[in-house]
Write a structure and sequence with these properties.
The chain is an alpha+beta fold. It has two domains: 70 residues, no CATH class; 116 residues, Lipocalin. The protein is 34% helix and 38% strand. It is built from four helices and eight strands; from the N terminus they run αααβαβββββββ. It has an eight-stranded antiparallel barrel with strand order 1-2-3-4-5-6-7-8. β4 and β5 form a beta hairpin. The protein is elongated and about 80 Å long. It starts with 6 loop residues before the first helix and ends with a strand.
Length: 201
């Protein structure tokens, strides 16, 4: 999700806010402490504060952001939806090979403030994330997930497994958050649609 933000500006703002707070606290210590503070204590104070800031940022990027998303649901529309969890998945196989056949699968989405990944477990195959990119549709402004994956088949005893790559564009609903739909293509010359529903955290 951080890819949707201007990262350089975010880093600059974090640095400016930290420097401002450190300066204010240092000035308060000097003013109310009634004595001058040397260079080494000041440096220790600054580095100690930076370690504390790292802990806060680590907490925010891993689990803290989800706490805010639950309490301020508008963040799903303003920034990007929280889709972390396990989903029921329906894969509709298109083209001559699929002939409209549908497969029930399970999708496990892992999301933090820095990245999103998805593992899909289907009968006879499993796919893992190679790359994801959270996006906003340039026309509608609605959130999307551009997704590249690697599928490995599990055909059973006596048969060799195969691997191939694929890509998908998933459309997210920032208001309902209970369904994800999209289209996919693979290097095995297959294509079709995805539908994720019934999320469980």
């Amino acid at each position: 999700m951080i890819g949707l933000l201007p990262v350089r500006i975010v880093i600059c703002w974090i640095a400016v806010i930290y420097a401002s707070l450190a300066l204010l606290l240092f000035a308060a210590l000097v003013s109310f402490g009634g004595k001058e503070i040397g260079l080494w204590p000041a440096a220790t104070f600054a580095f100690g504060g930076s370690s504390f800031l790292q802990l806060i940022l680590f907490f925010w990027f891993t689990v803290g952001w989800r706490w805010f998303w639950r309490r301020i649901p508008k963040l799903n529309a303003w920034l990007y939806p929280d889709i972390h969890g396990q989903w029921d998945m329906e894969i509709a196989l298109g083209g001559a090979q699929g002939q409209g056949r549908k497969i029930a699968a399970k999708a496990i989405v892992k999301q933090d403030f820095l990245k999103v990944s998805m593992t899909v477990i289907a009968p006879g195959s499993r796919s893992v994330t190679l790359s994801t990119a959270p996006k906003k549709d340039p026309e509608s402004g609605l959130p999307q997930l551009h997704y590249i994956f690697l599928v490995t088949t599990n055909p059973g005893p006596g048969a060799a497994s195969k691997s191939y790559r694929g890509a998908a564009i998933l459309d997210l609903d920032p208001t309902l958050q209970d369904e994800i739909t999209g289209i996919y293509w693979t290097s095995a010359e297959t294509s079709g649609t995805y539908r994720l529903s019934n999320r469980r955290d």
